Amino acid sequence: MDFSVADELTSAKQLAQQIFTDFTTVDKLKAVEQQPESFDAELWQALADAGLLGLDIDDSHGGTGLGFYALTALCEEAGRSVAPIPLVPVLASTAGTLRRFAADSIKDRWLPAIANGSALLSAALEEYNNDDPRSPGTSAQAGEGGFSVSGTKICVSHATASARILLSAQAADGLVVMLVDPRAAGVTLSPQVVTSGETRYELQLDKVQVPAEDVVATGARAAEAMNWAVQATRTALCATMVGLTDKMMRITGSYTTEREQFGRAIATFQAVSHRVADCYIDVECLSLVTQQAASLIDQGRPADEAVTIAKIWCGDTAHRVSQAAQHCHGGTGVDRDYPLFRYCLAARQIELSMGNSASLTGELGERIAAEFLQSA
Asked: Which alpha helices (DSSP H) does the chain contain, by range?
């Protein structure tokens, strides 16, 4: 098998690294954090101008068509610089789903605008006590020319700035996937400050009218679309976590080689070096399982189990690396003038998003047990 990385992907990663380096200085991050949305519009447009927002958008709609695997590489670089931009909800959850499941009219209207940075389309995949959009509590009632939708979604990224929000609802004839205008009558947006410090939104829908032209899929195709969206979102979050934890590990390694105690660098203490080595193993394992999941999705092959395993590793790695990094830093790690706190908060947010390790481990165990009983 050929495990070499395509030249186009290598070039895209190098370009992304340069852009993120230029736009995520400490002073710039502090300035963006003072904004209500914590969104760096200049960075977003720079990525668009470089063609990086269109990595998983086909050529005919203004993208480069490199695929989902390339998009996860971009997410990893964004995590490494803790960039304040909504890559996952806009590009993975929404644009990726539209590319694969929407009608041409929807693709023609929205994908070029996403690729060139002129429009944001977010996604609402989570509800209270339910992070599986394949079985939503939100309901939809078919009517003349579309659907009437009621329910509540939570943790919606950049809802006020989005032109449309992708979500699923349960109708009498099965699942419906649609694009909702956040400014439509019956929509109420309430800010929610999440663990990472970002402001996200509770999206309340009270008989919101969604026209037929904004319906992405219904029935079996809608279920397929949401299954893809769940897999893509979880994998993109895992890729972001690879970047976050890798940078946390390297910050910690650098700090422990400079910090001295008893006349020697603390990195030379066996307990410290072992903790950083464990971080390295965790990050490498997370990187491998994430690449496996992303590759399967990119090829259109079954990826449920690989994605679940990757998200389990994602949560566990986030927890262990954050804890080790803070432990090795002592009190320095929580100082707001030191960069580590941003990575730890962002990692914790991802750890709890779209399924935590404990719940997904239970799901995986039930799946394995069912397959065993079926084959017995």
From this structure: 7-23, 26-33, 41-49, 68-80, 87, 96-101, 104-115, 219-258, 270-299, 304-329, 340-351, 357-375
Question: Which two three-digit tokens encode residue 10?
Answer: 């290598």
Going by the DSSP 8-state scheme, the letter that residue 274 receives in this structure is H
Q: What is the pLDDT of residues 201-254, one digit of tens each?
A: 999 999 999 999 999 999 999 999 999 999 999 999 999 999 999 999 999 999
For residues 136 and 150, give the distance between their C-alpha atoms in angstroms, rounded to a whole number: 11
CA distance 228 to 297: 8
pTM confidence score: 0.95
8-state DSSP, 35: S
Rounded to whole angstroms, the Cα distance separating 110 from 126 reads 23
DSSP helix/strand/coil, 96 = helix
Residues 6+ apart with CB under 8 A from 25: none
**Is residue 98 a contact partner of residue 89, using CB atoms and an 8 Å limit?**
no
**Cβ neighbours around 261 below 10 Å, total:** 12
Residues sharing a CB contact under 8 Å with residue 197, sequence separation 6 or more, in sequence order: 33, 38, 345
Residue 317 corresponds to which tokens in the numbers above?
């790695």
